Amino acid sequence: MRLLPFALLLTGGCSSPVVEGNLTDAAGKPLAGMSVAIIADGPVGMTCQKLGATTDDAGHFRIEGPCLAETSYTVKTNDDALWLSEGGTVPKGNAAPLKVVAVRAGSREGLYIASGDELTSLRTGADLRESTLGGAPFQFVLKSKNVHLVAGTDSILLNGAEANDAYHFHPVTWTPGPLTLGDGDAALTVPEGSGIWMLDATVVAGALQPKPVVTPDPSKVRTIAKDASKLTWIPADGLAEGRYALFRDSDRRPYLIDFGKSQE
After folding, report:
1. Which of 62, 69, 195, 249 is such that its CA lies 20 to 30 A from the CA of 56?
2. Are residues 100 and 115 located together in one domain of the fold?
3. Which residue, 116, 107, 240, 129, is CA-closest to 182?
4. Structural domains in the chain (count)
5. Residues 115 and 85 in one domain
6. Rounded Cα gap, residues 30 and 36, in angstroms
7. So what's the pLDDT on residue 13?
């Protein structure tokens, strides 16, 4: 799973009021032209409350004048879509190098596709419908657009408390005809050679067989907490191969996602 980390190495100390380092991406490529700021965590003079610098072509920056003998500092960049997930603080009296790792997470809470160096907002791609089969109720998906996660490259990124707590993965299974849905005058026949995408169910020996909501493999998932919020990355191999609908209980339009390989 690729999380697009950025490494930021800082040095500083009480006897040398300087914070400097290099900002790079995961491959070690310098990130030029980025604004890096340090903000005092405690009471200090106006001249050293907030200080900053811009990285040069080599990704290097140098910030002079912090009051490291008096307070620690929080590190920030000018990119709201980056989270400093590890070591985002220059400790008070810091004398040892400090490595800070940032991850690209989107500038607002929501659901994203993380692919290579890009983040794309996830968009709903289906409608939910209800019917019955042999008198048993079920839901099915009318597909308009689905997302295929490429193994080793793509992940689903859940940014925020609601995205992490309210959304669930429901298995969507292609069920071929012939099928008779509904009853009486409302009955609908799905002919042989066609089929429907059933939600949380499949058909075994002509009878509806439930399929439970699934949970991503915790060994494949990466989660980072920040204040009251949370980021979670679910890679293409984080669920068993297949198609899933991702939605909240109140939603009528789910996100439709293929894990492993395209289900087309």
Report:
1. 69
2. no
3. 129
4. 2
5. no
6. 14
7. 42
